[in-house]
Structure formats: C-alpha cells, structure tokens
Automatic annotation (TrEMBL):
One GO term describing the cellular component: extracellular region
Lineage: Eukaryota, Metazoa, Chordata, Craniata, Vertebrata
Superkingdom assignment: Eukaryota
Organism, scientific name: Tursiops truncatus (Atlantic bottle-nosed dolphin)
Entry keyword Chloroplast: no
Pfam family, one: adh_short
Keywords noted in UniProt: NADP, Oxidoreductase, Secreted, Signal
Protein name: Hydroxysteroid 11-beta-dehydrogenase 1-like protein
InterPro entries in UniProt: 11-beta-HSD (IPR051253), NAD(P)-bd_dom_sf (IPR036291), Sc_DH/Rdtase_CS (IPR020904), SDR_fam (IPR002347)
A GO molecular-function descriptor: oxidoreductase activity
Chain spans, region Disordered: 1-22
Amino acid sequence: MTSAEKEKSSTGLCRPPPSPAADPGRAMKVLLLVGLGALFFAYYWDDNFDPASLQGARVLLTGASVGIGEELAYHYARLGSHLVLTAHTEALLQKVNFLSYVQLTSLALQSLTDSKGSLVVVSSLLGRVPTSFSSPYSAAKFALDSFFGSLRRELDVQDVNVAITMCVLGLQDRASAAEGVRGVTRAKAAPGPKAALAVIRGSATRASGVFYPWRFHLLCLLRGWMPQPRAWFIRQELNITTPAAA
C-alpha cells in the first residue's frame, strides 16, 4: 500500500461521526425525545398539594378496615379531615368489586354536584394492563375504569364540576392481595402509607389520574404504543415456573 493510500485509509477511519446539525431528521428525533422527557418529568415534579386544604374536609371512605383503605384513613385523620368509614368482609368485597362503586356513585352524585366535590377511585394496574392469572379481578377493574371514564365525559359535556381521580396502584405490602399472588409474581409490594399519601395528593389537587409507583404510567402508555415491549415487561414480573392456583 502506497503512502497516499495509507493516508486516505487512516483519514477515513478517523473521520468523526456526522453532527446532528448535518442530519436534520436525526436532530428532530433527538429534540423530540428530549422534549417528551422534559414534559414527563415536569408533570411528575409539579407538586401543588396543600395539606391545609384537607383540614375539615368531609371524606366518605369505603373499605377502610384493611390495606390501602386503612392507610388512607390514618392519613386523612392526621390531616384533620372529618371521616365517615365503611368496611366489608373480604368475601363480600370480592362480590361487589364493581357494583358497589357504581351504586354508591349513583347515590352520591347529586350531593357531589351541589358541593362541587370529587370522586377518588382506587383501582389497579390490572384495570389498565391485563396480565396472567388475574382474569376475574382484571375484568372487574377494567369495568371500573370504563365506567368512571365514561362518567367523566358525561359530566364534562354537562359542565358539572365534579372531579374524578382514577388511582392506578400496584401491590401494597399490607393488602390481602399481596398474599394471594405470593410466589406467582416477582413484583415487590409497595409501602402502603406512601401509596395512600399519593392517593390523597391526587384527590386534593383534583388530578385526573394517580399512578403509584410512577413507572406504571409508562407501562400504561406502552400498552397502546408498543405491545411487544409491554408483554416482555409483564413476563419479567411473573414467576412462570409457579403453576396458577386452582
């Protein structure tokens, strides 16, 4: 190889990669990703929660004897809210997992309309993203999400100032559901008090949705945009060597 060829070869090997400015399409993709990332983090870092706004607030709390309901009751009591608590046995609660929400909402809607109140619905990730070994529970939670999503649209077109906050939660460390899936899922249960505080923040700010842990929001977005990665993420959470419960 001649010296000229060597010089040409070495020049080609050492050539720097093209800058984003030289590739407008690549530059636009980078800017779009940065912009989406900035919007996402701004959404979650914006905290306008004022604990004083709950002082003296009237709160009807169902399912307050165990799990996330119990933690919500503790938090509301510390914040000075006036509480009305109800509870069900676990067996009865499973039977009315959807209908109790609908009936209670129907009875309370006129009062909420008059007071410009808010509805806070504690649901589950399984009401947004179906997964294995959860068909009956997932079906009830999907129905819940659909009912309150439709109700929100109806109230909006009628200019009714009633906020509906849908809370998408995962496993809680003090919930009976955590025992029911032990050995089936690798997902770690989240601290109940922190999940309850996230629900209260969403309620006080009249947010349309609460996701705890926050990564559940990403998984819900993946459901429609990228179904294959979503399926992969779900499989990572499952201990597939464990047979489904009879």
